[in-house]
Amino acid sequence: MDLINHLGLAQACEVLGLSRPQLQLAVDYGLLSRDPGTRSFDPAQLREIVARPEPFHAALTAAREARARSRSARRSAQARDREAVRRRQAELRRAAAARVRARVPARALGAAPPERAVLHLGPPRSGRTRAVVEVLAAHPGTGVYATARPGHALQAYGLLRARLGPEQVGLTTDRGSVNGRARVLCCTDRHVRPTGDVLVVDAVEGDALARLLLSGAHRTVHVTGVPRDEALLGVCLAGSARLEIVGHRRAAPLPLVPAAGPGEVPPGTAVVARDRACVHALHRELLDAGRTATVLYESLPSAVRLEQLRRLAAGEVDIVVTTPVLGRDPVPPLASVRFAQAPEAGGWETARLAAYADGTVGEYRTAVPVTPPGRRLLRDAVEAAADGGAAPGRGRLPLLPAWEDLGGPAPGEIPHALAAWRTAAAGALAGHRGLYAQWPVALTAKWQAARMAAGSGPAADAPWPADGPALWRLLTLPGGPDGLFPRIAAAFLTGRSLTGLLRPLPDVALLALPDAEAYAGTLRELRSALLRLGDFGGLSPTDTAAGETAVVRRLNELLAQGGPLSPPPVCACCGASCAPWEEHCGQCRCGGGRHR
């Protein structure tokens, strides 16, 4: 067929000295196929065989049967090899699973509980945080203030530093450390001293703080939460010689008031929306009404959010338009919290946000086409926020494995160890209300992304360019398997450079808002990876510090300009006004992308 395809039928007949019927017979018998075994025939032999089709047919049949037997033997050998590999991988999986130990909850497995545990329970704005900070300020020994939120660690550091003096207090977060060996340390969850006199945990959020309560060796522990957390925190601190509960209540009532529009809400108000697009639309509406406003949402760095909250507290702007990110940083006194939309998480999230009001709560009346939260939802949220007994709690606390729980697997064994840990931990936690083994699906997905970046095979015993502990540090970086993670994994595992991700500082000062937000996210991921993994990819934490300072400065400049932060939302098809989260207006969308 190669010859025929190359020369054409007529010319192939001429070269081989065959008629067209003879050539077709040769094709039918496979003498001119792509099988290399047929290419040994010269034209004379081919003509002789084709001229005597009956003997050739028998010979061809025997050859085909021999080839079939050979293929069958190869397939059998391949099947045996696959079965051997399967058995080998199954043995490796069983071996990895056998080494796993579900060391949770540690209290139930013999870890010494604290001598005294105090639960400070109440809604936000009830004085819980100041009470536990005062405990640290009054205690003469060593102490730790731990939280999942960098802004709250910074706030506690400022309060304690003013009380005790700068030499007595330290601060450690992912951004760095100040006086990290001080007698009293304020820190985020991954930087807690495992032992000491007093531990303060300001709201148990995430796996790291949960494990700290389950396994830390502090003599006295103070934990803040809402009343519904009592049973769950009691499980974490089971066995304490003294378990005390201190109730905290709001000092002022939290009234629900009628809906108000852009010109009616008082200065010092937070207006709540669901996402960035709606925040920008509401911000534009407030500016058009003659109000001054700024914004908060997830893609803004914490330092930028803190600056915008400072501007609100200082009276530089009247209103902050925010997503549910409100509360991740210390919130100044708010005259009112107004809801343009209810958060996607529903009533409990609405209640959490309403609790940050020092004045009133109500609906924000807007011309932006959003679905308002409804009076009933707001009434229930206000009752939950004002009444500590009804305030929403976590109810359940997820736990993920630590490296020590997995039995030291090789890099290729990590997914099998994770699956075995989940099974073992689920059994160990069955009798401990509220604690459960979180399925480590993100870790498995990140392992797959890292495997592809490293060029390693899927087998449990496949070679990797890093050992198990190093790969585990990579997998447990904050975030999921998408975004920048594949590039970080490739740089860490194969030595590829990351320097191309950095922008020249003069260029940062010219970035538009979306680009500045994206670059801030890139630098945040890089900094976190470099602090956890050490220098790699041609970068160190100092290389990202200047860029972070520059992009925070640029974002604050853009937000302080006082103008709209994005163009008015218009239909991509007809140019008419549309909802900020839609690409087309309703008429174009229903008409298949054009007016009908």
Describe this structure in words.
This protein has 596 residues and is α/β, with parallel strands linked by helices. It contains 21 helices and 15 strands. It has helices at residues 2-7, 9-16, 20-28, 43-51, 53-99, 128-138, 150-164, 207-215, 230-236, 276-288, 302-313, 347-354, 375-386, 414-428, 441-454, 468-475, 485-494, 505-508, 513-533, 541-560, 586-590, and strands at 116-121, 143-147, 169-173, 176-178, 184-188, 195-202, 217-225, 242-247, 269-272, 293-296, 319-322, 334-339, 357-363, 397-399, 435-437. The strands form 3 sheets. The protein has an 8-stranded mixed β-sheet with strand order 4-3-5-2-6-7-1-8, sandwiched between helices. A 5-stranded parallel β-sheet has the order 10-11-9-12-13, with helices on both faces. A two-stranded parallel sheet has the order 14-15. Strand 10, helix 11 (302-313) and strand 11 (319-322) form a beta-alpha-beta unit. Helix 5 packs across helix 14. The protein is globular.
